[in-house]
Amino acid sequence: MRYYAVIDTNVLVSAMLKWDSIPGNVLELTFSGTIVPLLNEDIIREYRTVLSRPKFHLTTDIVSDVVGELERLGLHLDAPELNLDFPDPKDQVFYEVVMEGRKSKDAYLVTGNLRHFPMEPFIVTPRQLMDIISDDVTNGIP
Length: 142
What we know:
It is a single chain. The chain is an alpha/beta fold and about 140 residues long. It has a single domain, classed as 3-Layer(aba) Sandwich (Rossmann fold), CATH 3.40.50.1010. The chain has six helices and five strands. A five-stranded parallel sheet has the order 3-2-1-4-5, sandwiched between helices. It is globular and about 45 Å long. The protein starts with a strand and ends with a helix.
């Protein structure tokens, strides 16, 4: 089974800083094709900008390779702007893209900051997404 998910930047950063972690597992499943990233140019730009911050000590090549692979594997969506108020305005694009994705697919928004988004069953932590995938495998859902 394939899972469609908008991956919040905090999940990507956590995965890059500690690959052997739940966020790292999410990224591994993304690179293996189990999770299809939903994204747009604004999200890609944020990934590049945040991962390139000196405090993360990631080389330009690593940032380019990771973001390039997400672009290659991802489903690019043009999402209309929604008139909503977010604690961090940069989070709005992630919500807009997941809402656009949900028009045709069962899509999730994976974040480490649930309180930054509306309470919705499709907005999940990395652990919750891994549990969903694990439950599907246990129940024989292809």
